[in-house]
Design a protein that fits this description.
Length: 145
């Protein structure tokens, strides 16, 4: 993904990194408002590229999961109301996208947030989820451990 997309703890939605200051980041909301706001060192900020989903074997990068959802939905928004779906329907859908996900450690709220983020990215045309070669991904995963 060519933009740095961030999740900010305690703030809804996703944000695009616009610039860096001495003690803060300037981010832009990925919604209709495109409102810009400062994010400070005291805020917990995570790049979507640094997030992985637990599976039965190895953790899968979030971008790979987004790519799986994108393929399942033919590049469109999520096809069911994940916000109001029951646990069974939510988990069945997620299993169709990532069959080996760890059913103990991946919570329903995690799945809902992932699908919400996916919809935000698709609405904003940010759908190049996997552009890096596989070797680069391996190097990133090794750094996290």
């Amino acid at each position: 993904m060519e933009h740095t997309i961030l999740a900010v703890s305690g703030k809804p939605g996703l944000y695009k990194l616009v610039s860096r200051g001495k003690s803060n980041l300037i981010v832009e909301m990925l919604d209709e408002s495109h409102k810009r706001l400062p994010v400070f060192a005291s805020d917990s900020v995570t790049s979507l590229n640094d997030i992985a989903i637990y599976t039965e074997s190895e953790d899968i990068p979030l971008m790979k999961v987004f790519s799986n959802v994108y393929n399942k939905e033919n590049g469109k928004l999520v096809s069911f109301n994940y916000k109001k779906s029951d646990k069974k329907e939510l988990r069945e859908y997620f299993a169709s996208v990532l069959p080996e996900f760890d059913r103990e450690r991946v919570h329903d709220s995690d799945i809902k947030k992932l699908l919400q983020w996916y919809d935000i990215l698709v609405k904003n045309g940010l759908t190049e989820f996997e552009e890096e070669p596989a070797e680069a991904d391996k190097g990133e995963n090794e750094k996290e451990r």
